[in-house]
């Protein structure tokens, strides 16, 4: 069974949630590291101040004895097991604060002169069954005494419990607030996603209404990003309905057209006509019905078109059509001129393009005296829409009177109701132009003084 794809809402919410969790996680890690470094710097400064305080109150006697200050910089140095310890190591001399009683503190490593180093956490024995850890700040210096220079290393120790408690308090607050921020931001994201995807839900409801036949097309109230989609869907809906209407019209026209030949045949059969007369009448009416069926099928085939087709170059097809027409009308010596924009493309079926240009050019060749002009231009548009197309065919013939234009472009019910000389060909052109939601105009040519047929195919999304 195929796995159901996640909805757009679920995809965006999942992606946003993962991004938010990753961001907050990295932020929390960075803040945690920054706090640790800041706390270590503060610890180092505090221990360094203890060292300086001991240096200020420390003195070596004449006999080499060490005299420490009466009061320690912090009362914890005088309380055993307080977590704050001090020690001094010199040549033949060792001193430790009262707080280190019963503890074996880690001895400082050899340092360079005036070097100060913070180490830790370091494990040591507390004199019981277990052990503890401390941070150690060590400093090496040379103390000038009456008996000569005395090298010494002074160390201050602080239990890691206090540092760890500070870090735990900070981490609880940090991750608590970040967790609360994550929950709030996820709720905000859900609301934002619901609001931002509202146009898609509206589009889904409108499509459902179209499918159930409640509305005929999608509304135009959509964001700019959805306009190409809604425009294409509306165009597809209109194209399908136009194709269905055309199919119904074709069947209706075919049925209506066949009524007369069938009625004639029936009347002949009922009239008791002779065999020879009946054979002649049947042959004539069958030929008539064959012509009607061929025309209606041809017109029905030309009524549909592919809405999204590969672009076709116009000039090569026009040259092929003109080459054929020049052979047919060789006796007239008609010259056809081209003014075709090289960027012009016909987005549709090849048969539609050939019928469209072929019928217009054949009409022009038929009525032209010497010259025919084919002009193809691109109608520029803004945005992402497909450009429109302007096709103009002009001749230097007698032209068409303005009062006959409207009657010329009317769509008849049957082919034999068309105007002689322009009817079927221009009716086909009219049908093709209508299928592409275009416009056909007939006017006087200002350049050749004959008729000018202008076809405009509008831009689409």
UniProtKB/TrEMBL annotation:
Transmembrane intervals: 174-193
All residue ranges annotated as the Histidine kinase domain in the record: 253-461
InterPro entries assigned to the protein according to its UniProt record, in alphabetical order: HAMP_dom (IPR003660), HATPase_C_sf (IPR036890), HATPase_dom (IPR003594), His_kinase_dom (IPR005467), HisK_dim/P_dom (IPR003661), PhoQ/CarS-like_HATPase (IPR058619), Sig_transdc_His_kin-like_C (IPR004358), TCS_sensor_his_kinase (IPR050428)
Keywords of this entry: ATP-binding, Kinase, Membrane, Nucleotide-binding, Phosphoprotein, Transferase, Transmembrane, Transmembrane helix, Two-component regulatory system
EC number, UniProt record: 2.7.13.3
Main location class: membrane
Domain HAMP intervals: 194-245
Enzyme class, spelled out: transferase
Protein's UniProt keywords contain Cell cycle: no
PROSITE patterns from the UniProt entry: HAMP, HIS_KIN
Pfam families: HATPase_c
GO cellular component: plasma membrane
Name by which UniProt lists this protein: histidine kinase
């Amino acid at each position: 069974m195929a796995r159901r794809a996640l909805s757009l809402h679920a995809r965006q919410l999942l992606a946003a949630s993962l991004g938010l969790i990753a961001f907050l996680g990295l932020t929390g890690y960075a803040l945690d590291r920054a706090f640790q470094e800041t706390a270590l710097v503060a610890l180092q400064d505090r221990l360094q101040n203890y060292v300086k305080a001991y240096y200020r109150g420390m003195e070596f006697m004449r006999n080499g004895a060490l005299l420490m200050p009466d009061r320690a910089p912090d009362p914890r140095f005088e309380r055993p097991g307080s977590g704050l310890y001090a020690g001094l190591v010199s040549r033949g001399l060792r001193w430790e604060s009262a707080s280190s009683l019963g503890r074996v503190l880690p001895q400082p490593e050899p340092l360079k002169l005036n070097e100060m180093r913070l180490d830790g956490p370091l494990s040591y024995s507390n004199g019981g069954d277990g052990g503890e850890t401390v941070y150690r700040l060590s400093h090496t210096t040379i103390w000038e005494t009456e008996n000569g220079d005395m090298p010494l290393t002074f160390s201050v120790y602080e239990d890691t419990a206090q540092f760890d408690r500070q870090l735990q308090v900070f981490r609880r607050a940090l991750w608590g607030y970040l967790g609360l921020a994550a929950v709030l931001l996820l709720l905000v994201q859900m609301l934002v996603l619901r609001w931002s995807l509202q146009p898609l839900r509206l589009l889904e409801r409108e499509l459902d209404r179209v499918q159930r036949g409640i509305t005929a097309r999608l509304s135009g109230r959509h964001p700019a990003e959805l306009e190409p989609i809604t425009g294409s869907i509306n165009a597809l809906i209109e194209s399908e309905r136009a194709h269905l209407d055309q199919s119904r019209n074709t069947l209706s026209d075919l049925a209506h057209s066949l009524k007369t030949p069938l009625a004639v045949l029936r009347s002949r059969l009922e009239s008791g006509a002779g065999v020879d007369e009946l054979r002649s009448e049947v042959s004539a009416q069958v030929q008539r019905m064959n012509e009607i069926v061929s025309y209606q099928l041809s017109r029905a085939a030309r009524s549909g078109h592919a809405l999204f087709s590969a672009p076709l170059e116009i000039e090569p097809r026009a040259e092929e059509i003109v080459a054929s027409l020049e052979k047919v009308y060789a006796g007239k010596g008609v010259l056809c001129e081209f003014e075709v924009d090289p960027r012009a493309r016909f987005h549709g079926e090849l048969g539609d393009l050939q019928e469209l240009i072929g019928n217009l050019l054949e009409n022009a060749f038929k009525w032209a005296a010497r010259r025919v002009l084919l002009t193809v231009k691109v109608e520029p548009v803004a945005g992402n829409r497909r450009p429109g197309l302007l096709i103009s065919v002009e001749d230097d013939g007698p032209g068409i009177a303005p009062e006959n234009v409207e009657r010329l472009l009317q769509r008849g019910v049957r082919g034999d109701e068309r105007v002689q000389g322009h009817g079927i060909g221009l009716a086909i052109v009219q049908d093709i132009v209508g299928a592409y939601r275009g416009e056909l105009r007939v006017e006087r040519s200002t350049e050749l003084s004959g008729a000018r047929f202008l076809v405009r195919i509008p831009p689409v999304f």
